User: Fold this.
Amino acid sequence: MSPPAPTATLAGRLMGDVRLRRRRALNRTMETVATLAAVAAVVVLAVVFVSVVIKGIGAINLDFLIHSEVPFGQSGGGIANAIVGTIVLVALASAMAIPVGILVGLHASEFARPRTAAAVRFALDLLNGVPTIVTGIFVFGLLVVGHTQSGYAGAFALAIVMLPIVARAAQEVLSLVPATVREGALALGATRWRAVVRVVLPTASSGLITGALLAVARAAGETAPLLFTSSILTTTGVSTNPGQTLVSIPLRIYQLAEGTSPSEHSEAWAAALLLILAVLAINVVARALYGRTRARMAAMQ
Amino acid sequence: MDDVPEASLSPTLPGVHKPAPSVRIRGLRAYYGDAERVKGIDLDLNANEVTAIIGPSGCGKSTMIRCINRMHEEIPGARSEGRVVLDDVNLYDPSVDVIAVRRTVGMVFQRPNPFPTMSIFDNVAAGPRLANRRRSDLQAAVRTALEGAGLWQEVADRLSEPATGLSGGQQQRLCIARSLAVDPEVILMDEPCSALDPTASLRIEQLIDELKRRVTIAIVTHNMQQAARVADRTAFMLDGELIEVGPTHHMFTSPSDPRTEDYVTGKFG
Amino acid sequence: MTTYSSGTPVAAVRLSSARRTAVDRAGDPILRGLTWLASAVAIVLFVALVYKVCDLAGESFSHYGLSFIGRETWNPNPSTKTYGFGAADFLFGTAVTSFFALLIAAPTSVAIALFLTELAPRRARRPVATLVELLAAIPSVVLGLWGLIVLAPIMSSTIEPALHAVLGWIPLFSGTPSSVGILTGVVILTIMTVPIVSAVMHELFGTVPGELKEAALALGATRWEMVRMVMLPYARSGMVGAVILGLGRALGEAIAVALVVGNADAIHTSLFEPGSTLASHIAAEYQGATTSLQISSLAYLAVILLALSVIANLIARLIARRAPLRLGAGVGGPE
Assistant:
């Protein structure tokens, strides 16, 4: 308990010792590991994306885009019917899920008591956690058994996948609308619904669009909900009639991938390229919009 | 593995006088990005004395003391230049290890910040554990540090309880014990009483008076009465510059710079 | 809006505003009713989904009861003697693929989240975080296609032989390397769960108070020691929640797994062998269901899958709800 003169140890102490160097080495190792993990994730994204581009670009041409699939065994064929089918399916699903989802969000932000809002949020989270293949089985049981597969059934299944995404995003962004904005409108004598239509929804609009776009991107890429609802082809050629089954791009990729011939695989890559470009583009736009909403809300508060 | 220098640096017993180093700050500048917040300061912290740093909000006093244990450089985009010399070692010398600097120059923050997931014991033991102190030593080190912070009596029978169960004043003394446990030579306090009630503040002030027997202390405070009570010397900062430094009674009774006089008499700040 | 123009009789003003409020008076309840209805739809949908899927599984349930879960058969050919169905093979496949995927994904996600919160240069943070999240946006069928055609050959030519050479003495890595199989499914599921889990963890680490991190650094902790001392304990329960959330996702992934897992209803100890998960098996049979018992048994698989997902979700939510409470009580403290 008789320490040496402080200055004698001080310089040595401040240089660090073997143990400290060892601790630093461990720190560097962990920092490297963390960096590598992040690099790996980005590299995987790049590798997947580049593979799809390289393998898909060769197979994409005008014929591929404007022709429909051909019966098994024939060569050629394209995905025109799948492109149209996807658009119709997603549009129908959006028409169901987006208005309902935004209304759910409004319910939470404008009317519901906290307990009710929490219960709805809970149901949405559960719905969001349902595997999409199970959603497909549900709609199969609800709409297909006793009837036939149809675009309506497929769109309904996609809508169930979309609803929690739209609604949770709407709840979140509407809750960010500053109370002052809402109260300002109400104080001017506006009724609730006028305040909602004139002030609340416009304020939150880009956030609501973000949620809707993310849901659209998700639905456009979903295969599983359609397997039991809109997969058995009844007509070849382009169809926009949701009363019949509609082929979608993801489903087509799935079927082509399960095939064994190189031409099927190259068609699958081409379709995958279209799909991934569309989905990533929607995602990037959605994220950019969301960034703007947050900035605007922050400025208002 | 066993003969690590730090193992010999067990916390000094309370009440024992121990010579601590002086700190000489020379030409210290600190930046956040391009904004210069500390604009070339020369200041001495005398050994085993308390130096108070006063000045209006935003004058750079916190930034300045954060340069003494090189915590300033942890903020993204922040950097500093100049020299901070502990006895005869420049803390910014390339041969000096920044981790070792922080174990030599302890810091107590504005709000009590005990580790919420740890017990009282583990909070104090956190520092020594980094140096892989042996178990038996750890018990002694924790007790000594808690005694040094005047907290042992109050917590001896509940060392394994969460630190967050303590009152604010106790939490702050726990934070002092936590920094004492690695046996620092200098302790920096950044408005340590601003989140505490008067009674708890007084207790900390008494503690500071005891601690200076073994460490050199710099305390940033916005409370001039506090500076007058605890500090041997007081430095007045304004807009990133050191306006004046001198014995505390001199600073509060007959400052030589009119700006110091305006501040201590409450004309601004 | 300009009702108060000069010359307009006061009565007319009053009347028009009265009429407007009549519309408004109807508007409020209508909006309230619509939003209420929408919320009710969300709840009813979930309840109906559970009911309908269970209902579809009814025939299989009354045929097998709970023994379905333990049966290792899946033979859809009614003219054979072993005709019958059971979930054991797929439960095994689901458990193995999800377990190993999360075993890799959890530490990787922690590492990525730490990189994003602590290491990345400020300018790189947002872009890297966005890129990692975009990984989650890749449609599962595209990832499955990539797994089948690009990854699978690499698995059989390089990765699995290497694992076999080094770890072959462990039964998991015994056997012959193959392109499609459980391990390829594990890799794909890892890729799918990492972005989800790391995004939650990134957010979580962002909530660790800066003053705690500073306290650790001021004690002379290295950055990694600070992480261990402060960040991981602070975020611990939330991290568990994040991993369980990822588990829920891994359990339910059908398409990508179906493309790479080999679709064999069998239980093997080697990860190189083909297998099937609950979800992938349902997907693989979408065209082949012939007897009503087979369809009902697929629905039974869906019920099991649904139950697992809901349980995972509930646990994740429970943990997430408790976490901030505990931490809130911790950080504030009496002052």
Summary: The interface with chain B takes residues 1, 3, 5-7, 9-20, 23-24 of chain A (CB under 8 Å). The two ends of chain A are 59 Å apart (CA to CA). Chain A has a mean pLDDT of 85.
